[in-house]
Amino acid sequence: xxxxxxxxxxxxxxxxxxxxxxxxxxxxxxxxxxxxxxxxxxxxxxxxxxxxxxxxxxxxxxxxxxxxxxxxxxxxxxxxxxxxxxxxxxxxxxxxxxxxxxxxxxxxxxxxxxxxxxxxx
Length: 121
What we know:
It is built from 1 helix and 7 strands. It has a 6-stranded antiparallel barrel. By secondary structure, the protein is mainly beta.
C-alpha cells in the first residue's frame, strides 16, 4: 500500500466519519463587474474527519460557559480553502462550528487544516 498515493487516499478516506461545509468570501463576475460575496458557501457536504487536540477548555467565573479548543480537519487535497473561512463539521451526531485560521498542509493523499473554536458552550 505504501508508495501508491491513489490507494492510500482511498483507504484514508474510508476513515472520514464527518462532512463539512466551508463558508467564506469569494469573487464573482456580476454584470461584467467583479464583486466580493461574503458568507458564500465554498464547499458543502465534503467528506472529512475532525480530530481534537486535547479536550475543550472551560472557563469559570465571569467567563463561565466559554470554551475553546483546537483541532485538525483531514480532507481532500484538491480543496482550496482560504484562511479565515468558517467550517461546520457534522460528525458522530454532533455539529461543530469552527474557524480555519491558517494554511493547509497538503499531501498527495489528504490535507490537514488547523481549526479552532472559541465561544459560548
